[in-house]
Amino acid sequence: MPARQSDASSKTAKAMSVADYIIDRLAAEGIEHCFGVAGDYVFPICNAVDSSPKVKWIGCANELNAAYAADGYARIRGAAMLVTTYGVGELSAINGVMGAKAERSLIFHIVGMPSYQNQRVHKIAHHTLGDGVFGNFVALSADAACCHAVINPENCVVEMERLIAEAHRNNQPAYIAVPSDYALSPVVSADVKPIVPRSNETALKKAMAAIAERINKAKSVVAIPAATVSRLGLQKQAQKAIEALGCPFVTTLMEKCSIDEGHPQFAGMYAGAVSEPNTRQIVEGADVVLDLGGVNLNDITTAAYSDHLDLSRFITVGLDDVRIGDEVIANVRLADVLSELAKFKRSSAPYRGKPQGLAPVNGDPSDKMTMAALYPRYAAFLRAGDTVVLETGSSSLGMTPTILPDGVRVEAQVLWGSIGWATPAALGIALADPSRRTILITGEGSHQLTANDIGAMGRFGANVIVFVLNNSGYLVERALEENPNWTYNDLAPWNYAELPKALGCTDWFTARVTTLGELDEAMKSARASKSGAYIEIMAGKMDMPPALAFAHGQLQAMYGATP
Amino acid sequence: MPARQSDASSKTAKAMSVADYIIDRLAAEGIEHCFGVAGDYVFPICNAVDSSPKVKWIGCANELNAAYAADGYARIRGAAMLVTTYGVGELSAINGVMGAKAERSLIFHIVGMPSYQNQRVHKIAHHTLGDGVFGNFVALSADAACCHAVINPENCVVEMERLIAEAHRNNQPAYIAVPSDYALSPVVSADVKPIVPRSNETALKKAMAAIAERINKAKSVVAIPAATVSRLGLQKQAQKAIEALGCPFVTTLMEKCSIDEGHPQFAGMYAGAVSEPNTRQIVEGADVVLDLGGVNLNDITTAAYSDHLDLSRFITVGLDDVRIGDEVIANVRLADVLSELAKFKRSSAPYRGKPQGLAPVNGDPSDKMTMAALYPRYAAFLRAGDTVVLETGSSSLGMTPTILPDGVRVEAQVLWGSIGWATPAALGIALADPSRRTILITGEGSHQLTANDIGAMGRFGANVIVFVLNNSGYLVERALEENPNWTYNDLAPWNYAELPKALGCTDWFTARVTTLGELDEAMKSARASKSGAYIEIMAGKMDMPPALAFAHGQLQAMYGATP
Asked: Which residues form the Thiamine pyrophosphate enzyme central domain (chains A, B) (predicted)?
């Protein structure tokens, strides 16, 4: 996302404070919300956010939740801001930021450090190991980012441009540590303009020639628009490229619905041995697999390494390079390759898949809940303009094979797979684009990790519709073991439907449903609710969706000799 | 704590699995509970816990909570066990483990890694950055420990003894990473006995001679039993040493009540300029400050560096050394020094402080809540056999200057000061010693971070009495700033008293009180409750205890030039 004009760049002559400069410069990246938890070392940064007319403070229940929310926000808006305090705060957030690094989501993580004054004289201070040492946590947090800096008034302007450019180049987090006294100091101006990552023209031409040569020679081509396409907001560009090429495209679990599943060139979800036979043949039999954005072939997306893919047939268009076999052409941006591909003149008619359509809704209203009935009901419930946030576990394994209506957006954290992610991510996603309705689909085990930010949804008017599947424990774990009854898969027996009221969401619609008819009614009320809605779905302890049942049989292949 | 006989050491000939060996060996350290969150890479470890007749699995809502609970447990039992999964789990826990490192609490943190098989061939796997690299998170988690190892069947027995010894030597966390296939392999036996850290006899004699020389020459001596005394379970030994010496002793915020405040030699709480004048004179005027365990003189314990202490007058008895001025005598254990000090023959009558007694309970039953009335009521409510867990913030700043009855134990995380710690820590503390009643005193802002483990309290029968002070935001932060009304100090408006029921604690006593009389009644009911109790106390937004009001005036000194 190109930088907008910021007060920061125009006002450095007036000597804004370092804190004000940082917040204003990041606001120019299109960020209007800041997720975080306050703390004394970070007060100057918090004050800059609270004083800014451009950025709103979104206080979360804790820092990990704030990081997840920022990740969700960044997936929609291209970038997000996360503010935490030194040591205790940043380390609480580190798993969320690391997940953003793994899944290519751009979080600017700003941390307030003890003052340079106190660092210089090695004061023994709270939020430290009590040793007068201040560098240890910077090293840890920096590991969860693709770039980092400890800011002072003189390096601030240059470092911010470097960090913003590098973070966009990789679409990964940047870590920005600011000593509390420096944060209040006037920023020293510097003559530096925003650095926008662009392709090298020669490299781009070389890459396009190589791609065209491979594609023109191929008898069959299949495209996979990777999750990074959505992270960079390039879904339409990817679609145009695929339409110009006329080839079929598939998605893995990581990029479901990044292009509508009703698109005539859609050839299904690819997941190794659990793919439909036709989809599998299209992918594994293709002369060229055009990987747009760098698809991640991990144990989840390949259904326990059950794929038969020949990587020598891949053309991988990364964020910043193109790889064909062992040849790497660097300094080529994904967006530019997509634009060039959209000019492709194909010689034959485009691929046309058979329209798959939604699965029919099944079961009688008086029937008890089953997974066979639940997932088609979700599909029937969803509509264009909805953004669905899927929690890792049986929820994502149940939903990803389910064909969804056009115009539905799906977000999930498939590779990093940190349970608990989806609830706060839904908060961030809802605030990032209130014109869409955000739907959270989670199991209750994962929900317990981060449910305390249901309160923030209510406080900040994020009218999320929450579905919590209550099947008495971690179903995905029961399914992945020989003995499903280990006590560590049991949970504290929450009364989930009472939670929103306890957390201050007093005007939410809430329901606890045990039959299909109750679910149907609750879905109608949830859709009608102007505020949020929360539906607890009671289900069988071992009732699992088909993909999970398949995984159950693949334990050996999935983890090597043993789990 | 010396190792008890374990099945592990006697049964290695039978080739237990690595996972069973690790759990059994740690059980021999007196650990009967394992806090954690399951995950597939750590299944073999979880299974070993669930199969063990010696250790009970305590599933927490999330990993940070589990780490805090383990920290609390370790403070009572000497050591604790924490189990998390690779990457997502261990990183979620890292702040809690780092806090245990800072505060000298011994957590054995066991993490299940992807199988050696898959690591060896660089498989792309979930819970990684998708890069086939498996070492990055080990380096991060190891930083939160004082020692670590990646376990295999051959190094397991030796490494476990090394880790246990080193963790006890420092009373800090040990990090134990176990690839999932190795966890199931038979352990290879090794001829190694438990290594128990002991003093070097010569060094101990030298240290005692140096200490005696300094003390005998001194006109005045004051002792400070540091927080480490409690962490190592040496409270009685420290008390005997102090009684033999006959000198006055003081405590800082970090070691409140480690020796009864009714002890005749107790001379008050020392906190720099906010100490009672007599206490301050005793400490700052002493010829020798006998620091038993290594007191941490940070901004909190010195009330914003307002102390006037001459460190050249300190005798610091560390966990493993004695320091007098610049002379360090190493290989001397705190326990041994305390035993030797207990043999001291004093030449004069012991110090006798004036008994301070509890502050009188004030206010009428119909009065609205005030901090002036609340803290004396807590003191009157508490009794011998209670363990009070204080949350960082106004709760700890209000409670620490309040004299408490003899036999009350206090735990707080003063140096690391990670808000949210106290709620799960209370879970761990309650399970560590059910013969005592655990009382949690927290503000609602801190409580929001980790309140989801109130559910685990109910599930595992931890009958904690929870007091939640609801004063509409982070009071400690409002107090530490010129503008108390920044929006980042506001919170989602939870209905706290409804929370236990929503989290499954259906048989708890719950109340929401606004007057002193309501609090008195609720306290009686809470004390009578056989299960847990939860009291939400409604208080004024800016009504703060005196120590916090003092800190408000000390911002300049506390953070250098600026906060």
From this structure: 209-334
